[in-house]
Structure formats: C-alpha cells, structure tokens
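The aim of this short unit is practical: by the end, you should be able to scan a pair of folded records and say something sensible about each. We start with the first protein, listed as its amino acid sequence and then its structure tokens.
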Amino acid sequence: MSGKKQSVAHKRQEEIKDRIEELLFSGDGTNGNNTNNDEESLYDRLGGVFAIAAVMDHFSDNVLNNDIVGRKSKNKFLREWSTEKAPTRLAGLKFMRTLWVCDITGGPFTFCASSDRPTCPYGKGNLNLKNAHCALEISSAEFDEVAGELSRSLDHFKVPEKEKGEVLAAFAAHKAEVIV
C-alpha cells in the first residue's frame, strides 16, 4: 500500500477508534443516558452492540496474530484454524462473539448455546462452547493467552477497569467449557 493510502487508512482507523470511545463512554460518565451507572447493565455501560462489535473485531484479529494461539501456534489445531479456516469463517466468528458478549452482559440479544447439549460432535449438531472448541484441544495456558488478548483489546478501547473486570470474569467463567 502506498504511503498516501496508508496515511488515509490510518487516519480513518483513528477516527473510528475515537468514535467507538465516544460510544463507549460519554464525558459525563453516563454513556449518554441520565441514569446511574450502577443501575445500567454491563451491556449499556460498554456502549451497546456497536462498541462491543468493535472490541470483538479487534480481539479476533489479534488472536489470529498471537504467536501462542494464532497462526504460529504450537497447537496444530489452533494453527490450522487460524491459517486455513479463518479466511472463510472469521467474519461469522466475530458476529457470534459479539452476540455472545451482548448476551452475557445483559443486552437485548440471545446467543443460543449451552453446555447441556451433546458434546463434541466435531462440527456436527448443536453449536455450544464445548462443541465449538473441543476439536481445537485448547489448553488452560492457551485459554489464558486468549483472555490476555481480550484484556488488551479492552485496554485498546479504554474500557474502564470495573467493566473490563466484569467482561473478563464472564469470559473466565466459561473456561471449563473450552479447555481439554
């Protein structure tokens, strides 16, 4: 990409980041609402679906580029997914991650997955967290690295510590469904 195109793309990326930060947190601390933050759902405090989608987009791209859990992973299943399947499936995964976060944070969307459905049919049957991840053979350390990427993405968008902690706790609560 030429220097001028890179400069325009970088400027646009910064404009989008600034707008997302505006959506996430208005200057008065109320996210544009006249209610107390303690009364709002985490979904509302995060800025709603568009802000959550931006974080999930950033997070998903960074997971692919992470040497431990992405394209250069020692885990052949994560490496294979990141190099062979991601080109056609990443957009859908970003959508599902966004729905999942919207759901677990009290938003108006429902992510239809639960761990009480049949386990690990390797891509067939119901899509829940256990089914979606079992063939990847994710270790506890790899899960923690993905959580680290989520933390860094939340930092990138300047999500306050309270909300960041709540998102990370919700993520960690599903660790047993994801690891082998």
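Turning to the second protein, read its sequence before its tokens, just as you did above.
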Amino acid sequence: MLTLGIEILRQLGNSEEAANYCARILRLDPSHREARLHLAQLQAGAGDFDVAEANFQRVLQAHPDDAKAAFSLGCLALRRENLVAGWSGFACRFEAGLPLPPIDLNLSPLSLLWDQPGEMQKARVAVRPEPGLKDQLMFLRWLTSLRQEAAFVTAELDPRLIHLVDQKLTRLSLYPTGSLTAEDADDLDLSAQIALGDLGARYGRDMRHLGDAVPYLQIDRQRANAFRHDYLQALRAERLIGICWRGGDMAIPLADWLPVLRTEGFGFISLQAGPAQQELHDVFNDLGMSAIRDPSIDPQSNLRGFAAQIAAVDLVISIDEVPAHLAGALGVPTICLIPHVADWRWFSAERTDSPWYPTMQLYRQSADGRWATTMQQIAADVQALADQSGKEGGA
C-alpha cells in the first residue's frame, strides 16, 4: 500500500509530499525498509544525491541482499563517473524489478569466465536484451568488442535494430527479442550468457574510451543522400536540422522552440514519432515557414529508414529519446535536451558533452523547470556555428 500511495503522489506531481510522508514513517520506525527506499529514490529524483546515497547505504547495510538499493547505488556511482562500482550495482537491475528476457536459456553467466585465462576465447555467448530501446542503442557499441574476444556471439535485439548491425560480421548471429530458445542455444552450442548492458563491466570501464566505437551502426547511405537532396530542394535551405520535442515522460512544446526555429539558413525536418503533425503545422504556419514530416518514414516501426533520414541532416536537436541516441550512434552532430536532474547516463551536471557520443552536446533545463534560456542559448550557438561554416565555405 505504501508503494501505491507514493506512486499516486508522484504521478500527481506531489513528490515533496511523498517524501514528507516517508520521513514521517521513518520518524516512527527508522528501520522501515520500504519507506527509506522510497525516500532515497525521491531524493535522487530531486537531485539530492548525497542524501539519497546515505539512505540507500543504510538500507543495504541492514539488508545486504536488497537489489533495489544496490541497483540505485550503482546508478549513483555511474552518475559520478565511478564506472567499476557503477556497473557492479547496475548488474542488479533485473533483481530490482526491470523486465527479464522472456525465455530462460539455462546458461552460465559469462562473467564467471572473465578472469579465467583462455576461456573467453572459447566462449560461445548469448547476449540477452535490455528492456528499453534507448539502452539497447547505447550498449550495442560493445557487441563488436565481445565478438572479437569470444569464439561466437548470438545477440537478441529489438527487431528494429537488427538491420542497423553489420550483417557481414563473422561469428555473430542476431535474433529478435524473445525468439532465441533453449533449443536454439543447444543447437548453437552456446556456453554462457550476459545481458547487453553488463558488457559495460568489461568494455566500459574507462570514460575516455566510451565513445571509441562511434559510429557503430550501418545505414543505407544512398537513401540518406536522396533524402538530403529532396529535403534541401523542397525547403530551399542550405542546411537541415532534425527535431524531436516529445517522447516518454519528457515534452517541450514546439512553441517553446521559436528561438531555434527562427535560426537563418536552416530547413527543419520532423523526427517526431506519434501524432504531432498538427502541432508542427500550427507552429511553422505561424512563423510563415514550412517543415517536412516525411510520410515515408515511421520512426516507431522502421528504424532502418529513420536512421537514413537522420544521417541526411546536418544537426539533430532532440530530447533524451531514440532520435538523439540514434544520431549519436551514427556520429551525426547532435544537441540533446535533458532535464535539470537528468538520467544517470549523462553523468555529472557539469558536463556539456557526452562520453558516449563524441558528436553530441548536452543542454540542460534551467533550475526553475523552464526551457526559455536553454532554447535561446541553443539558437545563439547554432547561428554562430552556421556563421562560422559560412565563413569557412567562402574562404
């Protein structure tokens, strides 16, 4: 019941009241495990990371097997760029409640072989999928490293991603999520398994090299060139910017993007999934401008075409959603808009770059929850970049 009550308060935007409720319970019973966990999660969500960490530690000291506390501490360690400790805690995510792969393959954990000389070279590995598309996109970079080290790799991926992985790679077989069975594992003589994100504990231990694999997705370059030619011609523009403004729990109304949309010399391509056509039409109509929402591309079902479309633009400006991660993985210049208190993957609040994606810059929401100042800064930076490119082109 406590969890339900806390969740209702959070959904209503009353996180402060939810935290106060947990604090009142803890004053009466300092050992109340669930209340302390919820309080720590609420504190982390508000950006009070030191206090949250102390509360997660108290839970773990009293209950060393608490996966939620261990996972949360792992995310806090990753946020602080302590990758070794971070991946250790991150490995508890499935025990903490994230959805497991649908089929149990009855294989040993690959991590048991990491410290055994020569065993990795003989391993035939099943890579199990992460539950979210963004995580799969981000962690996919490590498949090549594993393939180079192991004897054979079979990976389960969101079926939309399979066409973006180089099918010519040897010793690599790809299966849509949920289609790899125990019988398949026997037929392929697989000997070990690991979740895609857990490869970070072996290949993601150095901040300086997280982005080394970029670009690590393949695209239809001919189709991308055709998109670019058609879009430039239709918009009579010199350069193209792809934009995504809504998705998941995050949305920045397109009307708030006006400083960016008024930037001279650019045509705009909607990378927005879902029913956003009317909003796109209304905002650009008020500006006396046109934007393209290409009906031949469905960003939700056809990532192969969507990747070619993203590769056709000069810059992607997107909230923390699939278009930003896809652009980053392709090496396309990207501006990623993130909340004031952002996800662990963007590391410390002082960062304006992303070690995951060398061509990405981070722009954060201001502390008051508004985007106006951020959008004005993006507009100024994009215009300065365009002006500099124009000078170099005319030199």
